[in-house]
Recover the amino acids of this structure.
């Protein structure tokens, strides 16, 4: 049996008085593409950030490929929400993509010719090699998302954690991201995506985890996306709306 | 020291108190709008207006100087906004650029006019509170007390009138400017109105108090008041009270120790803020500490209950719910497990049976509540 | 021309020129990073907060010992920085108010110390007030040694920490996920920042220190779209502004600190105009849309 990509045990996270995550037990098998879904404030981003070690949990443990987070190095690539950085930053598209190579670089962190080539290849894979020398403050939303994705590809990680990558991007970028994530999975990578569009969950992911502070369900998509569970997460009316659309062919 | 509070001392105290109240009222609105540092920018920029106005009228006593200074304060704010909106510079950098530039221009001009004008740049920073009583307002043959007291007193009256006239619309604009605009109150008008008043305040006060004390008095009392009060009116009243206390305490200690009065007043605004920070009912450090301790215990009990509830019907309940195994599953040290479960047992949220912990109905309700089920 | 000959002709001026150049280099490079971190006003707050430390160092030692005063000022600046951060973290007090408050109170303490020192005048304290507005003209050769040390430290740290600081500045979360020790590099940055503010006080003074940190960086941003070029250009232009400002102040007999600041401001405006002109001429396909989108994002991203 493979070691799971992510193994979360008894995880609890609190912001001040309110618990953001309660007693989560979750295994993400390696080689799957999992959608992390739940209503607003369910703790989806918090869970990703805790797995990345950006938030210290109140209790519980996270293991990645069977190891604690401090030993995983750059095997995990994190793609934050686009709005989390200042795009006015003075850097070109290639500069940002190159940041992904940091884990492989020497003491001073200077990229070499091979790293540049890797970065250019990654930009080509996300379809923006023509923008390599474009300053990042001149990018559209979809292009920004592609740059983030290229940065993650350069990292050559085994586990990809993406926070709302489809948020506010154009249709072309959306399908490109999806294709890319599927390629990553077919090459043996594991992909976890914070996602809020319930109608597309079934098409896009093979596994899903339904979160509402507590983990309501996880596993194959059709086992998670049941009317019963959705109602528990989203309330009666919301679930009705969703299931009526989900059941459509 | 025998006749310590002589008439000059009382006059100085009066100037300090009036200046403090004027600054606190004007500053509260800046603090609420997260524009505290505009006080800094304005108070450093007004020197340029004074110098330029002096070059026109060639009279240090002319009211045109006040006008020029106020205008240059407003100009500084406008320049900060211009840099932000037209030149793509972030707010913090824009402020940090504008006031040194204007201040430098003033210092250079003064250095070139040194033989003809007596403007002490040092006094701009430090103020001359100690000397305020030497400059009385004289009407006919009668001395009416320090000129600064009249100016600052007039400013306080003006601010109170403006406040009485515009309190409601100001409150709406400051809370939600988009909503204010939608009901026909112009946020732009009030923004520049408050900026002009703040500039006027800096101008009137800096001569006596010095530009740094002006900043401290504009920001300090209002920040302290915000820790105690929730309503705008409460914030304003407390700001004034805190400003008066700072001025009085600062004056007394400064006079007794025979050191800079402005400096002591600034220190006292800090002291009052420090005390507020320590003792304020909700945001105070003591309250935070107590709340945190209580929360941690509640939180841990909740954690334990939720853990037990999640696993009590599961196949591994003997393992997950056993008292001895809790240290492993919750990653708590032994002592913590016994402390938390002891507290929960006392409050009848748990029962213990042969080393197995179980939720009582009340405990189960609490766990359910915590999970929002 | 051999600079050494020139040194012999006017050693006093040469010392000042060298000193302002070294300081401009260090503050320009470090300050441009502060601009990118949206922390530009920290320089102003720290220079005010360092003032009482400077005087306390003098008070404890009784003479104008540079080492004691630098240590005292650094301690106060570090305390102010920590206090500001703690205030923002632990209360509802906003960052702007916290900075203004700490700055005002620390400087108030400085005024108290200054007035106390003035009561027992001794010859050595004559120069103390110069820290308020800076007196580049009074730079001595031992000050040069201090400034040179600072410049070397800054350049060395930039060389070693460059790629890490770049990643941290752009995307802190990504830096953590790459395993970079963010708090270590933050501390190192703050240490150098405080050191340059404290050492720079003598040249630029309390009020004008912030301009020295911010102006070169802001101006450099108009010329380049890469962080490496921006920091390099900011350092270089900081040094050139120092040299040019010193010469200008010497020629015009203007006070040196304000002259450097005014020159820097002119350089900033010139840089902006050039950018504006080029932008209008080439009318970049995405520029107008880009500035609006970046403003929008900065609004969303701001906390």
């Amino acid at each position: 049996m493979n070691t799971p990509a992510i193994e979360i045990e008894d995880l609890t996270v609190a912001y001040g008085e309110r618990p953001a995550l309660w007693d989560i037990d979750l295994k993400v098998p390696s080689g799957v593409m999992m959608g992390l879904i739940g209503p607003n404030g369910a703790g989806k981003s918090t869970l990703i950030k805790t797995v990345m070690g950006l938030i210290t949990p109140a209790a519980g443990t996270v293991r990645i490929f069977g190891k604690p987070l401090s030993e995983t190095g750059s095997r995990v690539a994190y793609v934050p929400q686009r709005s989390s950085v200042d795009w006015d930053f003075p850097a070109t598209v290639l500069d940002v993509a190159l940041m992904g190579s940091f884990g492989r670089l020497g003491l001073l962190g200077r990229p070499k010719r091979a790293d540049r080539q890797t970065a250019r290849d990654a930009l080509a894979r996300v379809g923006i090699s023509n923008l390599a020398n474009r300053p990042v403050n001149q990018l559209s939303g979809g292009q920004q998302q592609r740059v983030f994705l290229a940065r993650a590809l350069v990292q050559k990680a085994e586990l990809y954690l993406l926070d709302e990558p489809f948020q506010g991007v154009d249709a072309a970028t959306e399908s490109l991201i999806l294709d890319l994530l599927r390629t990553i999975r077919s090459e043996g990578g594991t992909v976890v995506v914070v996602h809020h569009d319930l109608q597309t969950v079934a098409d896009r992911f093979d596994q899903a985890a339904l979160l509402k502070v507590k983990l309501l369900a996880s596993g194959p998509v059709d086992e998670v996306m049941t009317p019963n569970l959705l109602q528990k997460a989203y309330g009666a009316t919301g679930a009705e709306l969703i299931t009526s659309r989900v059941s459509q062919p | 020291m025998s006749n310590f509070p002589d008439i000059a001392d009382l006059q100085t105290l009066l100037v300090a108190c009036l200046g403090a109240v004027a600054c606190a009222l004007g500053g509260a609105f800046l603090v609420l709008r997260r524009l505290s540092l505009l006080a800094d920018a304005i108070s450093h920029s007004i020197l340029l207006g004074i110098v330029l106005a002096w070059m026109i009228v060639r009279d240090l006593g002319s009211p045109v100087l006040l006008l020029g200074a106020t205008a240059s304060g407003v100009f500084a704010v406008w320049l900060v906004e211009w840099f932000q909106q037209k030149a793509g510079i972030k707010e913090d950098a824009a402020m940090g650029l504008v006031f040194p530039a204007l201040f430098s221009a003033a210092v250079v001009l003064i250095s070139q006019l040194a033989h003809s004008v007596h403007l002490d740049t040092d006094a701009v920073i430090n103020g001359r509170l100690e000397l305020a009583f030497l400059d009385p307002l004289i009407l006919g043959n009668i001395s009416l007390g320090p000129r600064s007291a009249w100016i600052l007193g007039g400013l306080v009256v003006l601010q109170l009138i403006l406040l009485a006239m515009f309190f409601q619309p100001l409150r709406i604009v400051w809370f939600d400017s988009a909503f204010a605009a939608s009901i026909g109150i112009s946020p732009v008008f009030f923004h520049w109105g408050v900026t002009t008043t703040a500039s006027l305040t800096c101008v009137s006060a800096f001569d006596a108090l010095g530009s740094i004390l002006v900043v401290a008095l504009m920001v300090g009392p209002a920040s302290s008041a915000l820790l105690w009060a929730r309503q705008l009116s409460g914030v304003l009243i407390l700001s004034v009270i805190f400003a008066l206390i700072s001025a009085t305490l600062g004056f007394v200690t400064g006079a007794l120790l025979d050191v800079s009065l402005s400096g002591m007043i600034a220190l006292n605004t800090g002291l009052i803020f420090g005390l507020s920070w320590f003792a304020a009912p909700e945001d105070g450090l003591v309250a935070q500490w107590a709340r945190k301790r209580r929360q941690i215990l509640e939180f841990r009990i909740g954690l334990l209950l939720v853990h037990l509830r999640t696993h009590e019907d599961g196949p591994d309940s003997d393992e997950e719910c056993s008292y001895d195994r809790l240290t492993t599953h919750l990653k708590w040290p032994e002592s913590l497990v016994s402390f938390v479960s002891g507290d929960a047992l006392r409050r009848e949220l748990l029962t213990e049976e042969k080393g197995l912990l179980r939720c009582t109905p009340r405990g189960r309700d609490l766990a359910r509540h915590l999970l929002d089920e | 021309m051999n600079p050494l000959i020139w040194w012999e002709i006017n050693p006093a001026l040469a010392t000042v020129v060298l000193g302002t150049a070294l300081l401009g280099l260090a503050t320009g490079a470090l300050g441009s990073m502060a601009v990118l971190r949206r922390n530009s006003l920290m320089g102003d707050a720290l220079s005010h907060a360092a003032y009482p430390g400077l005087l306390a160092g003098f008070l404890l030692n009784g003479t104008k010992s540079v080492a004691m005063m630098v240590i005292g000022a650094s301690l106060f600046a570090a305390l102010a920085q920590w206090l500001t951060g703690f205030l923002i973290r632990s209360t509802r007090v906003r960052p702007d108010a916290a900075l203004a408050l700490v700055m005002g109170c620390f400087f108030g303490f400085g005024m108290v110390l200054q007035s106390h020192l003035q009561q027992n005048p001794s010859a050595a304290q004559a120069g103390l007030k110069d820290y308020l507005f800076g007196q580049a003209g009074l730079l001595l050769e031992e000050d040069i040694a201090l400034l040179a040390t600072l410049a070397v430290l800054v350049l060395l740290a930039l060389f070693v920490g460059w790629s890490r600081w770049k990643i941290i500045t752009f995307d802190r979360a990504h830096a953590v996920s790459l395993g970079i020790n963010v708090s270590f590099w933050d501390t190192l940055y703050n240490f150098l920042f405080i050191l340059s503010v404290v050492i720079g006080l003598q040249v630029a003074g309390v009020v004008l220190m912030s301009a020295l940190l911010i102006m070169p960086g802001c101006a450099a941003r108009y010329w380049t779209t890469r962080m490496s070029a921006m920091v390099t250009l900011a350092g270089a232009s900081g040094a050139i502004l120092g040299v040019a400002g010193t010469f200008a102040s010497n020629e015009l007999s203007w006070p040196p600190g304000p002259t450097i600041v005014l020159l820097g401001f002119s350089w900033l405006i010139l840089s902006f105009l050039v950018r504006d002109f080029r932008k209008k001429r080439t009318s970049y396909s995405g520029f107008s849309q880009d500035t609006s989108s970046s403003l929008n994002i900065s609004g969303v991203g701001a906390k």
The longest strand of chain B covers residues 142-146. Chain B has a mean pLDDT of 83. Strands of chain B lie at 136-139, 142-146, 350-353, 356-359.
